[in-house]
From TrEMBL:
Signal peptide location: none
Domain DUF403: 1-311
Domain of life: Bacteria
InterPro entries assigned to the protein according to its UniProt record, in alphabetical order: ATP-dep_Glu-Cys_Ligase-2, DUF403
The protein's name: Alpha-E domain-containing protein
Species of the source: Pseudoxanthomonas helianthi
Record-annotated membrane-spanning stretches: none
Length: 313
């Protein structure tokens, strides 16, 4: 397979999964906003910083400050093409890649991605408000899952499919840490200190729900939601498909079907060790965002090794 085609397949799967999880990330805040009483202060700005585009937002909107409203954040995260990580930008990028590799993937995949593109352009602006936002996010999530299902069901298990799997696994691992990061970033500020623990657990419940993990959490953990248990489940659970460890294990299992690249294997082992050795109890008592940032940096290093080993030769 040409390295250009492998690169495109890898990035196509990453952009589709990024779009899905951007919708899920916004869903964390939207669901919390609906559940919380009006007396509780809710901050939207941490969602932007969680995605890693705080500098872009500050440059585009220098007067916004920290107390930016939900409409501005929604537009920036969902529709603004000046934001390279926005939902619209991700679908546009996936669609553009697909134009060049349409012979490598089923026609149904093109139609599904094109439907998402048309829907975002047609209904995105009215979905910024609270009334239609949840329906819009659910429609995007379902559309991205449809693309993933078409890839899983209708693509031959050749080397190209392995690059699709690799991109999907790494992007999901990265976005899971970012959604966890959002839940630990102080979205909610209670007026009374005695309410802090209650609202913190509500945040973790919203994180689990946004990752479609709440029912599986209850089924496996059989306890009420706490920060420690939610972190343990989303970071280290070996059976839930969106946990970081599950995604990294899936990516690691792809590597034997590809040409050997020692640097990729070394980077993979390093980030897996970081996740496996994490202590959820200490994380909850300290600052979970520090570990999430570290995992994201290691995933970035793993991506660079993959690009150098397979795409830049």
């Amino acid at each position: 397979m040409l390295s250009r085609v492998a690169d495109n397949l890898y990035w196509f799967s990453r952009y589709v999964r990024r779009a899905e999880n951007t919708a899920r990330l916004v869903g964390v805040g939207s669901q919390l906003q609906l559940d919380l009483p009006r007396s509780v202060d809710f901050a939207w700005r941490p969602l932007i910083d969680t995605v890693g585009v705080g500098d872009v937002f500050a440059e585009l909107f220098p007067e916004a400050g920290r107390n930016v409203g939900d409409a501005e954040v929604m537009r920036f995260l969902l529709l603004d093409r000046r934001n390279p990580s926005s939902l619209g930008s991700s679908i546009d990028a996936a669609r553009e890649i697909l134009r060049g590799i349409r012979d490598s993937l089923p026609q149904d995949v093109w139609e599904a991605v094109n439907d998402l593109h048309i829907y975002i352009d047609g209904d995105g602006e009215r979905s910024i408000g609270r009334r239609y936002r949840i329906d819009f996010l659910n429609r995007i999530t379902d559309g991205c899952l449809k693309v993933s299902a078409l890839l899983s069901s209708n693509v031959s298990r050749d080397i190209g499919f392995q690059f699709l799997r690799l991109g999907t696994a790494l992007e999901q691992a990265d976005m899971t840490t970012r959604i966890v990061d959002a839940g630990a970033s102080g979205l909610v500020t209670p007026r009374n200190e005695e309410d802090r623990e209650t609202f913190r657990n509500m945040q973790w419940m919203a994180v689990l729900r946004s990752l479609a993990a709440y029912q599986m959490f209850r089924r496996q953990m059989r306890q009420r939601v706490t920060g420690e248990l939610a972190l343990r489940f989303l970071l280290q659970n070996a059976e839930f498909p969106r946990s970081v460890q599950f995604c990294l294990t899936r990516a690691q299992r792809v590597l034997p079907s590809m040409p050997t690249r020692p640097e990729v294997e070394r980077r993979m082992n390093r980030v897996m060790g970081l996740v496996r050795n994490a202590d959820p109890v200490a994380l909850v008592q300290g600052n979970p965002t520090t570990l999430m940032d570290e995992i994201q940096m290691h995933l970035g290093g793993l991506h660079e090794a993959i690009a150098e080993g397979y795409f830049n030769g």
